[in-house]
Amino acid sequence: MSRIELIGISGSALAAAQWPLLRRCTAVVASRRHRFLVADLPHPVIDIVPVEAMLNQVEEALVAGDVAVLASGDPLFYGIGRRLIERFGPERLSVRPALSALQLACARFRTPWDDLALLSCHGREADNLPGRILRQRRSMLFTDGRNSPDKVATELLAALAACGDNERIDAISVRVAENLGLSDERLTSGSLAEIAAYSFGPLNMMLIEQPPGPASPPFGLGEDEIAHSRGLITKDEVRAATLHRLRLPVTGVFWDIGGGSGSVSLEASRLCPDLVIRIVEKKEEEQANIRTNIRRFGAYSIHLVCGEAPEALAGLPAPDRIFIGGSGQRLEAIIETAAARLADGGRMVINAVLERTEATALACFERLGMRAQASTLAVSRRLAGGDAQVFNPITLITGDK
Question: Of 144, 159, 291, 315, which shows the fewest CB atoms inside 10 Å?
Fold first, then answer.
């Protein structure tokens, strides 16, 4: 059976041991910047992009014999190796990695990489970048032409400025390794603002570092830790039950409508850091609390939408989960609008204090063909030797689409 020789390239030349492998192959896959390496071979050269077309051509070429695939660095590390294994199976590949771009960048920066958060924009949709980067003390980002270091820095600056997080803006340092191993290799360092002002080519590794934040658990924040106004916050016990009911996905989109202080979203962002969260809140006082909480916990996967539902829901990415904590007498319109956007298999959870809110929610879910259930939670607290503190019962209404 013919095989695929997956060969990692480091720098601008092939190693002597790689030439016998190439000569026995009947075709070579290479990017434009690697084509000159095999210009003297008589083999047909297949472009590595678009990837799907390349995979089809490799399958055809394998009928005649072995195929070589040239890739930068370690092709199993955010590289083409994954797609080749998925298509042809691991048994048909021989992998000969070179030093990865990560290893080279950290060597140039003279910094260890065993504690880095590794992220990639290369050939991927780079959504929720501030949320993914700013929760980490040290992140290494593989960038590409669409998401270059200057664009990433600009996006981070915008997210931080929107929450008034000047302290974090000043504290973050950035280093960029461009064109590693090539003759025009360049190392650049600076603040977010300085990096945003530079221009970069498409091949970069971007190291983003910030001082460690305050230690806190991934779940179970107390009311006294979360900025809120006049006791208007979802109580700890209710928040825990609400998050349990939401069954949040690891990735996707979560709407928090009438978010108040944002306590539910704050916990959600820490439990599911790759979840994109939109909080809709109309009150300026609560908007200020939300911004404070985002700053305090580095929860930049949360995006504040200043406005009132259902109008403010227009244009938001379609949600996989929805929580309605406040509706301002517009519950029926909010449910109808939100349910129309909710993904198939999605879930909506509504917390109700009043019986009429529960009745309206259940009736709406039934009319919209959503499976509904309701549970009532009564919370009381007692410290040793003290009187019990009893809170109003809360009914959690769940609708499944």
Answer: 315
> Cα dist. 233→122, 225, 237, 269, 308 in Å?
41, 11, 11, 17, 19
Cα Rg, the chain, nearest whole Å:
26
Q: How many residues does the chain have?
A: 401
User: Does the pTM of the predicted model rise above 0.85?
Assistant: yes
Rounded Cα distance between 132 and 67, Å, is 37
pLDDT at 327: 86
Contact partners, residue 72, CB within 8 Å, separation at least 6: 8, 9, 10, 31, 34, 79, 98, 101, 203
Q: What is the pLDDT of residue 13?
A: 83
Contact in structure between 32 and 203 (CB atoms under 8 Å): no
Tell me whether strands 389-390 and 380-381 are parallel, antiparallel or unpaired: antiparallel
Note the pLDDT of residue 125: 63
> Using CA atoms, how far apart are residues 118 and 303, in angstroms rounded to an integer?
23
Q: Which two tokens stand for residue 313?
A: 């829901």
Kindly report the average pLDDT of the chain as a whole number.
94
Q: How confident is the model at residue 218 (pLDDT cuts 50, 70, 90)?
A: confident
d(CA 81, CA 78): 8
Q: Give which of 241, 199, 191 is closest to 219, Cα–Cα.
A: 241
Tell me, what DSSP letter sits at residue 232?
B
249-278 per-residue burial string, b: 16 or more CB within 10 A, e: under 16 = beebbbbbbbbbbbbbbbbbbbebbebbbb
End-to-end CA distance of the chain: 49
Average pLDDT over residues 216-242: 93
H or E segment and range at residue 35: none
Task: Encode pLDDT of 148-160 as tens digits.
Answer: 999 999 999 999 9
